[in-house]
Design brief:
The chain is mainly β. It has two domains: about 90 residues, Sandwich (Immunoglobulin-like); about 200 residues, Phage tail protein-like (STM4215-like, 2-Layer Sandwich). It is about 15% helix and about 50% strand. Strands 10, 11, 14, 15, 16, 17 and 19 form a seven-stranded mixed sheet that branches. The radius of gyration is 27 Å and the shape is elongated.
Length: about 300
């Protein structure tokens, strides 16, 4: 019997490969050769349910773009069977990683800068590189060239946070070829995002007032709250704990009569990925199933 293909889901995935796809068709042999755009995929399983053939496979690496999906039946020895090949033209699209959409970390940095400008000082800037010298306060050179008074936010640095991490595989319901299925994913990588705050002024009283305003900001704002999905206002909010990090340091003898202070700020429990799939999806039992859903931060 000549095989046929109906669909492949998902219909798009990373150009790096490794995604799990489900191919649905008919008359597929227990052993098959699968190619996407001419590149061989890794067949994980083939089963038949009520005359419908279902294949799970790992996608291969491939240049971005739409490609044909081809499945060829193999005999017991692993050789292709003549005339038993089916193709879905342009059915799968390889994509580069989506870097245009803002990541949560980017949104956190923007929100932090916005609130510091609104609540503490308009002249706030972000530095991702600092010139270190022999002064007691790292980052003073960066601050000294800014318009005074000023605040400079340096970083971020990340460090793993196991307290807020999920630590267990996440289960979620996904659409399958014959109904809902449960997909398990690795726990997301959860980190603390740490920044250094450097304040500077050429007047001692102004610097002390700036220190007090920064301390008030950190004491008043214990959570950073953002929309869970910037494209969906109805998706609710997510919040991250925010606190001072380390001790306040001062330098009253800086270059050019610039006085400065330095402090740390940390935002805890930020998930920087969604967790990779652990295994193939499996059918949900009759009546549905409860699944745990990992969240980024603490939902409000």
């Amino acid at each position: 019997m000549v095989p046929t293909l109906r669909e492949i889901t998902p219909a798009a995935g990373p150009a790096s490969g490794g995604d799990v796809v489900t191919i649905v068709g008919t008359a597929l042999a227990p052993r098959v050769l699968i190619t996407l755009g001419g590149a061989a995929a890794t067949a994980l399983s083939v089963r038949d349910e009520g005359g419908v053939s279902i294949v799970h496979a790992h996608t291969p690496p491939h240049a971005e773009g739409a490609v044909d999906v081809t499945v060829t039946n193999l005999d017991a020895a692993g050789a292709p069977i003549a005339g038993e090949t089916a193709t879905l033209p342009g059915a799968y699209r390889f994509q580069r990683a989506r870097i245009v959409r803002e990541a949560d970390l980017t949104r956190i940095v923007r929100a932090l800068l916005r609130e510091l400008k609104r609540q503490v000082l308009e002249n706030v800037s972000l530095s991702v590189a600092t010139d270190f010298d022999d002064t007691p306060l790292d980052g003073l050179d960066v601050t000294a060239i800014a318009t005074l008074p000023s605040l400079v936010l340096t970083g971020p640095r990340v460090r793993e946070n196991r307290f807020y991490s999920t630590n267990e595989a996440v289960e979620e319901v996904v659409a399958g070829p014959t109904g809902p299925e449960i997909q398990r994913r690795r726990p997301p990588l959860t980190v603390d995002v740490a920044f250094a705050i450097t304040g500077a002024s050429d007047r001692a009283v102004e610097l002390i007032n700036l220190m007090a305003a920064t301390a008030t900001f950190l004491n008043r704002n214990r959570w950073l709250v953002l929309g869970r999905d910037p494209l969906d206002a109805g998706a609710g909010t997510v919040r991250w704990e925010m606190d001072a990090d380390g001790e306040l340091r001062t330098d009253l003898d800086g270059k050019g009569d610039v006085r400065a202070f330095g402090w740390g700020l940390v935002i805890r429990g930020v998930d920087v990925d969604e967790g990779l799939p652990l295994d193939l999806a499996r059918a949900v039992a009759d009546g549905g199933a409860e699944v745990g859903v990992g969240v980024m931060g603490a939902a409000s």
